[in-house]
Amino acid sequence: MSIDIETARKVAHLARIRVEEERLPALAQEFSAILGFIEELNEVDVEGVEPMVSVTPMRLKRREDVVTDGRQQKAVLANAPDAREGFFAVPKVVE
Amino acid sequence: MADLNTLTIHGAREKLRAGEITSVELTQACLSAIEGAGALNAYVHNTPEQALAQAEAADTRLKAGGAPALAGIPLGIKDLFCTKGVNSQAGSAILDGFKPGYESTVTQNLWDAGAVMLGKLNMDEFAMGSSNETSTYGNVVSPWRRGNDDAALTPGGSSGGSAAAVAADLCLGATGTDTGGSIRQPAAFTGITGIKPTYGRCSRWGIIAFASSLDQAGPMTKDVRDAAIMLSAMCGPDAKDSTCSDLPVPDFEAALTGDIRGKKIGIPREYRLDGMPDEIETLWQQGTEMLRDAGAELVDISLPHTKYALPAYYVIAPAEASSNLARYDGVRYGHRATLDAGDGINEMYEKTRAEGFGDEVQRRVMVGTYVLSAGFYDAYYNRARRVRALIKRDFEQVFAQGIEAILTPATPSAAFGLGEMADADPVKMYLNDVFTVTVNLAGLPGISVPAGLDAQGLPLGLQLIGRPWEEGDLLNVAYALEDRAGFVAKPGKWW
């Protein structure tokens, strides 16, 4: 399957990665090459095969529904590019 | 005492316990080797003060007696592992300056076992790459060269810094991680041993995630015994990772008897590729002879879905990566782009991720986004997960027939030159993982053992694949292979 420039632009936006307009044709071409490779999977008969969910047959662990950690506001914010008054700071979200 | 950094873990353990050397001496030998090896670009964050403090503590414990398994052993740690207060950036600019406030379970287990941290090791960005050319810190250069040719070669990837550091004696052992071959391929390229254990053997907590259903940590070491010792210390149950097994961890070193008489070893016919170099074919044949010589029974087997492993991987791994890497948004840690007046939250995300992620990471995140997007989820992602189930079933069927391990080449070629693949289509680079990626998809343990040199003097490795949770048995077969192969070559020191 060949990916057009419009699809490449849409995917870049969905992935929240800015791609300059002049880079889009090359990107579309790279996607097409990778997807062409992936399309070999269409040769396989997967009728009646369940998609694998877990590589080891195991039940996910359960634990008591209780608080085990917390009250680490300083540590949580320590690596933030912009933290103010105990919060992460971001550009205005609501107009 | 000279050259203590060239010791194996078990060699150093004996000398430390006999009081012939101290951990401080051993650690200093490694630190000066690191200082002289800047040209390899293997270490990216050095922690000499922490190393010497841990070494002194280990010496005290060794003197008192009853010291733990890795007391005083200096190790290098892949940059993918979160280490408290020490830069942990996954080789990415988007995690620039990130210093975790916590320690990964695997590294904590190593420190609890008495090991010493020398520093953090270079790697492909977010472990995406097979040549260590996608790192924000620049390429790692292999200590190996083709004869007298001074062209810089790749150590492989993504654990390229770990591989180069072990091969060049810049540590006694190193941690790696393996999502599609990132421990085994660089181990093969640099003439060292690397094992990826069964999925769930090592906790993934605190290891920066790439593809969560495939990622596993493992040791990269100078020989099989060291791999067994280090793996025992790394793994074990962990309440912080719900996919980490509660099975008790055996003493893997105790499994190394070298006796593999009567063991059935499978040779999968689908691993014989068109256009595979004769040297790889010959090495594989020699490996077969070595195991037969050790008393094993060699059996031709079929793993019919092998050729679909790489395409399935290149759906599943990018899909999981696109989800895992959504967290790098410029809000909580790492890099945030400088914004223009009027830029909103979406511009912040898009600019931050465009500046912070390298080309290969961007490519995989976008491929993952595409295969998970509405309308394509079933055609790509669900189909790949079904094929994955078939690949796993192939292995289950041969194990049910009594096969105890499978012998394959580790890589389709010896190490290539840095930059040699620069103009190649990304898919060509992906072919490096053709022999290793099946093992991740099926969640099995796999080990790469150095087994010979090519005509240019570069190391080649063989891979052994084991049954789930039977790492002890697998290591024992690897031990027998190592013994017969007698690989002792080391890179000549040019750096």
Features:
A: two-stranded antiparallel ribbon; B: 495 residues; alpha/beta; 15 helices
Task: Describe the protein's topology.
The complex is a heterodimer of chains A (95) and B (495).
Chain A: H1 5-14, H2 24-38, H3 73-77, E1 83-84, E2 87-88
Antiparallel strand pairs in A: 1-2
Helix pairs in contact in A: 1-2
Chain B: H1 9-17, H2 23-35, E1 43-46, H3 48-64, E2 74-78, H4 105-112, E3 116-121, H5 160-167, E4 173-178, H6 184-190, E5 193-196, E6 216-221, H7 224-234, E7 264-268, H8 278-293, E8 297-301, H9 309-324, H10 345-356, H11 359-372, H12 377-400, E9 405-409, H13 426-430, H14 437-442, E10 446-453, E11 459-466, H15 471-485
Parallel strand pairs in B: 2-3, 2-4, 7-8, 7-9
Antiparallel strand pairs in B: 1-3, 4-6, 5-6, 5-10, 9-11, 10-11
Helix pairs in contact in B: 2-3, 5-6, 7-15, 8-15, 9-11, 9-12
Give a quick rundown of the structure.
The complex is a heterodimer of chains A (95) and B (495). By secondary structure, chain A is mainly alpha-helical.
